[in-house]
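Quick one, tokens below. Sequence please?
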């Protein structure tokens, strides 16, 4: 009884610790990621087996939306900043629901080019509105925790989705589309019932100069663009896991597919279990220290893969990546939320997500070229060197960003006091 009571008390404390909207987004993100990972790993198989499409055309249907999304993200966040979080959070999953119903009826590969592009557009409307809304309702000191909770939900989806997806695909391929369509409809209902509007009151003077701009001015927003640029190499490393890593392991292991499956499962389990403890433990660290340490972990990841491709040592590399995932990405989101004025929060998050799109577009091609021409040592060793350089630059950049913010706050408090 005492143990049960203690568990109940702990769960109650955890529930009260975060804003109710954060918990709604946690469950919605987990549901969306479970069905998303049910769907996307098997889309190429579905198009080749069910539609008779060539593997190249099927792969193109997966890649094309990422290219379109790169340009869409330039203004996607502006929609939420101008019209509110709630309308976007209602409209985007409704759009996705229609797209997924269309996928069930699709009979040609070009249908999937169109539908997957529309699905990507709805996702890129929804995501920055979600991140901005968390920043709207969560105090600065708790935002890293809130974004870490979101990271837990993503990793739960990454673990469960593929397993459920293969079962659904073998039973009836249409189920993988139906499941995600049902979650999209569930999202609409939950947003309608549980999520109010949180867009901060607009300051006419601050918004009038930016509301019509698609791309924020280079001069005043240069730190954001530099942050985006210096984050791209991390995503280039991450994208190797889904592109060149199996090919690299094939040269070192007989059962390379089994090794690959284990190496991809370990970080997901570690992140799901340890994300919140690691986040709470690292709260006392300065953001500059967290970010630089994370980049050095990725340097270690690259060096191990490049120069010590032994299974048990590679598990250590995956631990390095899991810690990077737990420490770096929530902290970067928190830094973006601090940089952005309330009237451009969603736009900042949308633009920052371009770093992921650039990584997706460049990593597979560049990585495979280097791997084929020069080998794994050149690929992963070169990435380690790149991360060392960008980690140092990121340390300097974030130090200046936070110093400038502290100076502005000091000036504002002095003006109020005077």
């Amino acid at each position: 009884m005492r143990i049960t009571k203690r568990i109940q008390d702990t769960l109650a404390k955890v529930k009260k610790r975060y804003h109710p909207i954060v918990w709604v987004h946690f469950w919605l993100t987990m549901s969306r990621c479970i069905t998303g990972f049910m769907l996307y790993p098997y889309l190429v198989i579905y198009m080749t087996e069910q539609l008779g499409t060539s593997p190249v055309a099927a792969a193109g249907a997966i890649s094309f939306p990422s290219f379109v999304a790169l340009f869409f993200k330039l203004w996607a966040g502006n929609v939420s900043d101008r019209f509110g979080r709630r309308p976007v959070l209602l409209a985007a999953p409704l759009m996705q629901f229609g797209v997924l119903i269309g996928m069930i009826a699709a009979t040609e590969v070009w249908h999937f080019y169109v539908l997957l592009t529309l699905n990507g557009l709805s996702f890129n409307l929804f995501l920055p509105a979600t991140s901005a809304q968390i920043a709207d309702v969560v105090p600065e000191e708790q935002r890293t925790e809130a974004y870490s909770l979101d990271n837990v939900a993503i990793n739960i989806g990454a673990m469960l989705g593929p397993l459920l997806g293969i079962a659904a695909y073998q039973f009836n391929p249409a189920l993988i589309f139906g499941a995600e369509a049902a979650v999209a409809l569930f999202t609409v209902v939950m947003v309608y019932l549980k999520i109010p509007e949180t867009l901060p009151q607009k300051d006419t003077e601050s918004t009038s100069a930016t509301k019509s701009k698609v791309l924020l001015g280079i001069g005043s927003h240069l730190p954001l663009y530099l942050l985006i640029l210096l984050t791209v190499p991390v995503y280039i490393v991450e994208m190797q896991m889904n592109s060149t890593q199996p090919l690299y392991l094939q040269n070192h292991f007989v059962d390379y597919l089994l090794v690959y499956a284990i190496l991809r499962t370990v970080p997901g389990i570690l992140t799901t279990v340890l994300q919140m403890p690691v986040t709470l433990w690292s709260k006392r660290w300065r953001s500059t220290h967290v970010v630089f340490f994370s980049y050095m972990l990725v340097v270690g990841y690259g060096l191990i893969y490049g120069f010590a491709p032994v299974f048990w040592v590679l598990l250590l590399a995956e631990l390095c990546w899991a810690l990077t995932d737990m420490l770096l990405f929530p902290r970067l989101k928190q830094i973006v939320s601090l940089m952005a004025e309330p009237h451009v929060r969603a736009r900042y998050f949308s633009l920052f997500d371009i770093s992921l799109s650039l990584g997706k577009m460049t990593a597979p091609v560049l990585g495979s070229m280097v791997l084929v021409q020069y080998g794994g040592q050149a690929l992963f060793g070169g990435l380690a060197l790149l991360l060392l350089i960008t980690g140092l630059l990121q340390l300097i950049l974030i130090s200046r960003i936070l110093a400038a913010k502290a100076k502005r706050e000091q000036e504002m408090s002095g003006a109020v006091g005077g």
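Residues 203-212 have pLDDT under 50 and may be disordered. The chain has two domains: 15-199, 218-408.
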